[in-house]
Amino acid sequence: MGTIVTPSRMLRGFDRPYSSPAGYSDFPFTWVYDGSSLTRGNNYPNQFVTVQSGYGDFILRRIMGLDTVLEPGSGQFQIKDMSGRYFQSVPQNIGPNAGNGSLAGCAADIAILPERFYKELSNIGVDLYDVAPSGGIASAPASQIGFQGVRRIQSNPPPGFTYRPKTYTYVTYGAILGGTVLSPTLTTQVIQPVQNYAFDLMQVYLFFQRLLAFITDSSAALYFQPVQPLAAPPELVTIQILTPVGDNLPLTVTVTGYAIVVRPATNALGQLISTGIEVANAINSNPEASALVFATAVYPTQPLETLTPVGVGPNPVVNPAFFSPNASWAQCLLFDQNSVQVYSQAMLDLFVNAGSYYNNGAVVPLLQYAQNSRIRMDITPTIWSGVEAESSPLWATIHYVGKQRIPC
């Protein structure tokens, strides 16, 4: 018996919206090909991603990220259907202006029209010629191709209810730590509870900025993250660790408005004796300061009690502006309400972020989250910018844009 293909019910003029075939349900999904281990300048025909068992059949509608894998100008590709037949008659060039936001030559984004069907356990094939991991894009820490579409499984949809849709956006935050000697790929789970009403997720925006930080030496630091719920805009909070003048002074923390000032303790010789962990504890135990930030002392390689904050001065440390959405700072993995991942592996934030030049934050079809469920995204920082040679933690702000279903 041949393969049974279940075509989507596409628009007929404008009188009928898209829907999955009767007896099936579609869920947004992206199969990711990782090209980070490829050798620059080589050719790699017969590469593939397998549509793994348990995820259902796959409907391909978009390909993104070829500009992170192929050499700009000379790189070429050919895509195969599930029977191994090519989409292109000959290898297709990605164009001389590929990368850094350019869509020239189908470098960054390819729409697959009409959609292509891949049976469960079949392969999405691709031939790659003249590869260049990161594709000449300095802001891409990984080389990935995202095959975006839907996974289709046999199911009966749950009974619906009459509701009134209301535009709604959940905004959630997370401190993204890692990159130190002992935690080079630390992943943070950022959880957003779905409260009051069921929620349809339609689009994701990601924003990154550097955490407030004091570097004590090459392997230690004090990090400060805004607390939740936010008592103040993070960019308005300042931290100062002043060098005290005097002998036998106590460790003090004072707060004026959004400005936090720390004066470490001194000994009989006027030398600093407060350790990083003591400073963090003092801030976290101060009611006014702890309403603004949570302090973390990071000592990956040395005992806490032997280190004292150094490099203090009169200038406040201020949370910087948001980083460019067209540069990659992390890899992300989104989960549905049943804790099933929406991508086959963590993928570039550029592919997830509606604000990036890929404009790929749309969730199609939308993801439904029941009341009292949760939206989970795992974020792994991959580029360290700025305050420390080895590690620069990030503060992530995520906007989940969609609609609430208000019963009526």
Write structural notes for this entry.
The structure is a single chain. With 408 residues, the chain is mostly beta strands. The chain has three domains: 24-154, Jelly Rolls (Sandwich), CATH 2.60.120; 163-210 and 322-407, Jelly Rolls (Sandwich); 212-318. Helix content is 4%, strand content 41%. It has helices at 276-285, 287-290, 349-352; strands at 24-34, 44-50, 57-64, 76-80, 92-93, 109-118, 123-129, 144-154, 163-176, 188-193, 198-210, 212-217, 220-226, 238-241, 252-256, 259-263, 293-298, 317-318, 330-335, 347-348, 362-369, 374-381, 394-407. A four-stranded antiparallel β-sheet has the order 1-8-3-6, with no helix packed on it. Strand 12 (212-217) and strand 13 (220-226) form a beta hairpin. The two termini are 47 Å apart.
How would you summarize what this structure contains?
By secondary structure, this protein is mostly beta strands.
Descriptive labels:
single chain; 408 residues; mainly beta; Jelly Rolls; four-stranded antiparallel sheet; 23 strands; flat
